[in-house]
Amino acid sequence: MAKKSIRDISLSGKRCFVRVDFNVPLDEKDGQMVITDDTRIKETLPTLKFLIEAGARVILASHLGRPKGQRDPKQSLRPIAARLSEMIKRPVDFADDCIGDAAKAKAMALQDGGVLVLENVRFHAGEEKNDPELARQMADLAEIYVNDAFGSAHRAHSSTAGVAAYLPAVSGLLMEKELTYLHDELENPERPFVVILGGAKVNDKIEVINRLLEKADTIIIGGGMAYTFRKLVQGIAIGKSLYKPEWEPIAQAAIEKAKARGVKLLIPVDAMVTDAFDFDAKKLGNMKLAAEGQDIDPEWEGVDIGPASVKLFADEIAKAKTVIWNGPMGVFEIKEAAKGTFAIAEAIAANQRAKTIIGGGDSVKAVKKAGVADKVTFISTGGGASLELLEGKTLPGVAALNNK
Questions:
Q1: Which residues contact 396 (CB under 8 A, 6 or more apart)?
Q2: Is residue 100 within 8 Å of residue 124, measured between CB atoms?
Q3: How large is the average pLDDT for residues 145-171?
Q4: What's the pLDDT band for 70 if we cut at 50, 70, 90?
Q5: Known catalytic residues?
Q6: Which residue of 19, 26, 104, 397 lies most exposed, with the fewest beta carbons within 10 A?
Q7: What whole-number distance in Å separates Cα of residue 5 and Cα of residue 353?
Q8: Predicted confidence band of residue 390 (pLDDT cuts 50, 70, 90)
Q9: Measured between alpha carbons, how far is 222 from 190 in angstroms, rounded to an integer?
Q10: Residues 331/337, Cβ–Cβ less than 8 Å
Q11: What would the CATH number be for the domain defined by 188-390?
């Protein structure tokens, strides 16, 4: 995707409005908001370092939480500015708003290589409505717009798309990397190309399945949506497993498309099942294996893939030259139902010959929990955005950037 990045323009002395994703988890401790995971700040550091070394004047904007257009001190970016200062080992200024005279004065006072963090853009109701007046006022602070917030690129908001109407607009290095791996690499993947899709609902993933059926050599289906496929293909009873009758024609169409295109469609052949399931309490009742070809009992439901499915999938992953994974194999948030998901994470990590791409969301948590995050090629920072890109949709935050 030939979009201009910060590598393609002159930055020295230029005020750059940089949309980042600093939507980090916070906890209240002794009356102070404390960052519990600074991964999203770390992800932006290569872009910030590049801008600072190029002599740009860096103005950082982000949302945090869902304040719904109201000021909420618990969702202020002030603690993030403090953490960022520690991480880059230089002073970081903070503005109490993302627009207005005070913010503008601070932006104008920046020196080359200086850094300013603006207050939460969602303190303004116009942000999520892509209000052009709010976007214009943000654009007034700067001379260049840089979007490095891939995780928000599927939203047409004032700071993710609107500002780009008023300034030259380029991507940061993180955005550039996301587009390279989730778009460019998959346009002409090294083969065999194996796609692994999990998650709960067939209708949530059908666009991705349809799009990737045109590119993949093998599609592996796991998670809650696999039971609809198992019912159709294997003719087994699936008990109380996740299923809706309206998912059947969607799954059937995918099965037929795979057959017509010569794509191998792999679905689980066994399952770990339980007789009681409380997701909120993270508790399961009795567990047992519903083996290959075996019906799932009427009062039981599948919560993970079984050992035969793990072997079937792992053998296929081992042959791949390109792998993309989006969605867990079971209810991996509960320890007893996480084995299948972790086994797939390990199988992906074990194939060091392949380009391995983790497509955001729960799959990222899974590779991290499995302790193999450093053994895969690329981990996407955007759950919803990566899915929409894989579906072939145009992301507003990407479309707004200048072409090379």
A1: 153, 154, 155, 156, 160, 161
A2: no
A3: 96
A4: very high
A5: 40, 201, 361, 384
A6: 104
A7: 29
A8: confident
A9: 23
A10: yes
A11: 3.40.50.1260
Interval 336-369: pLDDT, tens: 999 999 999 999 999 999 999 998 778 888 999 9
| Topology agreement, domain 6-175 and domain 188-390 | yes
Cα–Cα distance between 382 and 23 in angstroms, integer? Answer: 12
Give the CATH number of domain 6-175; options: 3.30.230.10, 1.10.10.10, 3.40.50.2300, 3.40.50.1260.
Answer: 3.40.50.1260
CA distances from 150 to 77, 112, 380, 396 (A): 19, 26, 9, 11
Q: Could you tell me the strand order of the sheet in which 264-266 lies?
A: 264-266, 218-221, 193-197, 322-326, 355-358, 378-379
The candidate with the shortest Cα–Cα distance to 363, out of 195, 219, 188, 159, is 195
DSSP labels, 340-367: HHHHHHHHHHH-TTSEEEE-STHHHHHH
**What does the alpha-carbon distance between residue 345 and residue 368 come to, in Å, rounded to a whole number?**
9
Are 50 and 127 in contact, with CB atoms under 8 Å apart?
no
First CA to last CA distance, the chain: 9
- Which is nearest to 21 in space by CA: 40, 5, 38, 37? 40
> How many whole angstroms separate alpha carbon 387 and alpha carbon 382?
8
| CB atoms closer than 10 angstroms to residue 290 | 23
pTM, rounded to two decimals: 0.89
- The helix or strand, by DSSP H or E, that contains position 260, with its residue range, turns out to be helix 247-261
Q: Any idea what DSSP says for residue 373?
A: G
Give the least confident one: 178-182, 278-282, 290-294.
278-282
Q: What does each C-alpha distance from 210 to 110, 176, 357, 383 come to in angstroms?
A: 49, 25, 19, 18
Taking the domains of the chain in order of start, what are their residue ranges? 6-175, 188-390
- Rounded to the nearest angstrom, the gap between the alpha carbon of residue 12 and the centroid of all alpha carbons in its chain is 32
> What is the CA angle 358-364-368, rounded to 5?
115
What are the CA-CA distances from residue 365 to residues 298, 346, 359 (Å)?
Answer: 32, 13, 11
